[in-house]
Amino acid sequence: MTTGYNFEKPIPINGIGFSWRPYNNEDLLSDSHFTIDQWHKIIYDIDDMVQWRDFLDRYRRVCSCYVLYPTHQAEPIAMCYLLAEDGLYDRFSNGEVISVHGGGWKNDTPSRYLYARAWIRIVHYLHQSGCKVLTNVKDDNSDARHLVSGTGFRLNKLGLYEYHPARDRFKD
User: Fold this and answer.
1) Separation of alpha carbons 169 and 172, rounded Å
2) Cβ count near 95 (within 10 Å)
3) Among positive and negative, which fits the CA dihedral 16, 77, 39, 43?
4) Are 36 and 47 in contact (CB under 8 A)?
5) Contact 26, 65 (CB under 8 A)
6) HSE (CB half, 13 Å, CA atoms) of 104?
7) How far is CA 97 from the centre of its chain?
8) How far apart are CA 51 and CA 65, in angstroms?
9) What is the DSSP string of 132-154?
10) Is the dihedral of CA 35, 122, 130, 7 positive or negative?
């Protein structure tokens, strides 16, 4: 079994009815995607796509972005990014402790359901790759808090949500 996620070679992560594709310069702040306020719930210190692309390029060894495409649709409905954690996790190799962050911009029920299934898939993929999987949720983001807590994440001693597969109600 491999241990960790390889940031140098992001690959598509597929599920039934969707594909998480590596980011390919999609405009995530276009009129039909995130508003700047929604974007700042996910990434609070980047204000436009030029900054986002620069960030991804500068930190490509520790950060990857994915865009969620429903099967047979040309338009994406969500994004997530993976970030290698360090600091308190320095005893782990790069790619063994990953935080996952993201969101969707479609509010209809089928899109929200698909995003939830895709979120679960990417978390399981990382866990099965040998990663400790973390995330964080802003206090005012009740939808994200509901998704995170319902899919096996629990608040750890460091104030981050950590994935515990035994508590996941929605296993593959």
Assistant:
1) 10
2) 22
3) positive
4) yes
5) no
6) 24
7) 13
8) 14
9) EEEE---TT-HHHHHHHHHTTEE
10) negative
Structure confidence by residue, pLDDT tens digits, 49-87? 999 999 999 999 999 999 999 999 999 999 999 999 977
d(CA 94, CA 172): 26
pTM of the predicted model over 0.70: yes
**What pLDDT, on the 0 to 100 scale, is given for residue 142?**
84
pLDDT number for residue 1: 43
Q: Which of 107, 163, 111 lies closest to 132 in space, CA to CA?
A: 163
Mark out the alpha helices in 4-158 (DSSP H runs): 36-42, 49-58, 109-128, 142-150
Partnered with residue 145 across adjacent β-strands are none
- 138-166 burial, b at 16+ Cβ within 10 Å, e below that, comes to eeebeebeebbeebbbeeeeeebbbbeee
| DSSP symbol at 165 | G
Average pLDDT over residues 153-170: 82
